[in-house]
Fold this protein.
Amino acid sequence: MKAWEYVINTAMLGTDKPMPANAELPDEVAEITTIIDGVELLDKEAKFLQKALVIYNYRQSGFEPLRQSDLPVTTAQPEIKPYCSNAATSVLKDVFNEDNAALLELWLSKCNKSGQLFLPDFLPLLLDLAQKDVALRPLVIACGGNRALWLSQLNPAWQYFTIQPPEEVWQTGKPEERVEVLKKLRETDAQLAHEWLQQTWAQETAASKVDLLKALRFNVGTTDLEWLEGLLTEKGQKVKDEALALLKQIPGSSIVNQYQDLLRESVVLKKEKALLGMMTKVSIQQKLPATVDEHIFKSGIEKLAGPKSALTDEGYILHQLISAVPPSFWETQFEASPAQVVEYFEKYGNDKVSALGLAVSRFKQKEWVPYFLDQPGFYIDFLGLMEPAEQEKYLTRFLNSDAQNILYYAVRLNQEWQPNFALTVLRQMANYPYEYNRAFFNKHIKLIPAGIIPQLERIDTKDANLQNTWEKVREHLIKLLGLKQLVLKAFNA
């Protein structure tokens, strides 16, 4: 109502600010304000206050809604999936009351896995939550059913409900959306992802080229080799750098072959007869040639070890080169099995064992991992090459000696911990209750198995001064696990 704006302005700037003419006001208001104007005993301030009162009350009375008779009337299609049970619905209410995003995601994932829907009562709330939390969207879409699809069309904020085909997103999506589509396709069909990128490459900006190349890090392989080699002539330095980084992960690429050629000459296994030929003396000779091709250093190999390094400059160069070639190269170079190769490095080139371990991670040669598990060094990238049980066993081995780092990696595992591992980890976390607090467990409750509640009650901190704080955290954790247990029971999980 325009007249109310005049009232506000006049109140702020003074009655010298003109009010709208009576003719500009609604008929019901103009009739009263005309009478007010006719009262000679009132000054202009009094007239303003009386007019403002009339306009305010008129405004408070409301307005008739806009009538539009040509709006289409639609209804939701009948649901195909059944709604979840009363027990599951009750647990969902408890999850909302706890305001725990991780448990809500768990509830939705179990509902989806069981092929059920949440009740329509929750639609507005869950559609709003998924609008803010992208991770929830696929689950809300799957568990919302046809009624959620219908309702989403009535609110522009819920338009995410209609999922575009990947091909359409690739062609018309925002830069960050196209990168995500390429990453997902890379997981399921690396060759098709490669073809899509080739088709649009000439039209991409320099910045988008770098981001899209990073999406190829998953499943990069020989099928990408020829095309990536061609990108080394690109104008943009960042594009060339990213292409080179990818080529360093592909056995048989020109840069990996260069490294192997240099190592073939520089690191040699020597076997010589000793003690009148009765014994064989074994050694690894490590010596760079007098002249090293400068292209090696331009590819990212650094020349200087730095003042704090335990390696010489030459040793540092060799360390980098060893970490940058497939471990299988040494099977040929040393004419030995993987177990023998590791043993040779342990005995005769111990300062390069860690470089060999890095190469195992870089080239994802998981068959080499067992030969490093007894090493004192911890290789974080090995976790991605192990089965869940092996991951936990590997982390447990280093937990007492490097608790904080190992806890950091344990939290980043993708699967729920096994009970014994969970209890071992929680015994360590109990010693840091300010770091591993209520907020922490709210976020990571999916990792902790609900069945450990009885044993959890017996875990205490080593520091008596922290006991009270830990007890409060533990009480909250038990509450969350109890709710998690109800979620699983509701869907018979």
Notes: The first strand starts at residue 267 and ends at 274. The beta strands are 267-274, 279-286.
